[in-house]
Amino acid sequence: MLKFYYSGAPNPMKVALMLEECGLQYEAVPIDTRKGDQHKPEYLAVNPNAKVPTIVDGDVTVFDSNAILLYLAEKTDKFLPPKGDMQRGELLSWLMFVASGVGPFSGQSIHFRQYAPEKIPYALNRYAYEAHRHFAILDARLAKQKYMLGNTYTIVDMAVWGWCRLVPNALGEQSWSKFPNLKRLVDEISARPAAQRAVALRDKHKFKADFDDEAKRNMFRHFHVQVA
Ligand SMILES: N[C@@H](CCC(=O)N[C@@H](CS)C(=O)NCC(=O)O)C(=O)O
User: Which of 50, 55, 64 lies closest to 98, judged by CA?
Assistant: First the structure.
């Protein structure tokens, strides 16, 4: 059976959503990143990047959340435009836009707002600005159409959902008012039974909640290591 290594963080949650949307059978294997499971040799053997998520599907191992979304969409032939369709190019562009822009910039904005030991105005503003800019691009597109690729719900919407549920964490409590179209999509997806099952999966395992010294040591190794 397909193995899904996960935690409740945004990147694994988009894959949990896709697995549930496809109705695939899978074994969920919790990786408690605050306890350091991502650095254990048996996990590094499937994901040398020491991050979640990863799937192992028979002989095939796939890590990086958007690569997994694409793999599962191609495997099941679901939630992506047909091969040869001109929308296939759009799908790749927007999927990579989320992978290389929305995720990293909102992640860094959350990091500097919530976790950095010092509040550095330059870093706070740079990442908030970039997260905001990316969310605004999504919002403008969703002002013109229901889903990221038009009228059909695809893996791009799932990738957007993974990160954009955290708009308030990246930009502050009031920030949803700036992205009404993006909020409409996130709310619609959150109400889907598959999203509710994905969230329930996260809550099924008792992941370490405390962000104490052990968690910092495991997730933010740069606190203790100087590389340059
Ligand atoms: N590009 C990777 C990034 C994965 C990633 O950063 N995962 C985070 C959770 S969202 C993680 O594993 N954090 C634990 C750590 O940094 O130690 C993907 O899209 O899967």
Answer: 64
Residue nearest to atom 5 of ligand 1 (CA): 51
Ligand 1 center from residue 48 Cα (angstroms): 12
Say if ligand 1 is within 6 A of residue 219 CB.
yes
| Averaged pLDDT for residues 174-194 | 98
Environment class of residue 50 by beta-carbon count within 10 Å: exposed (0-12), middle (13-18) or buried (19+)?
A: middle
Ligand 1 contacts CB of residue 38 (under 6 A) = yes
This prediction's pTM: 0.97
Contact 168, 110 (CB under 8 A): no
Residue 21: how many other CB atoms lie within 10 Å? 23
The per-residue pLDDT for 83 is 86
pLDDT attached to residue 47: 98
Rounded to whole angstroms, the Cα distance separating 52 from 43 reads: 10
214: confidence class by pLDDT, cuts 50, 70, 90: very high
Of all protein residues, the one whose alpha carbon is nearest to atom 16 of ligand 1 is 219
CA of 84 to the centre of ligand 1 (A): 32
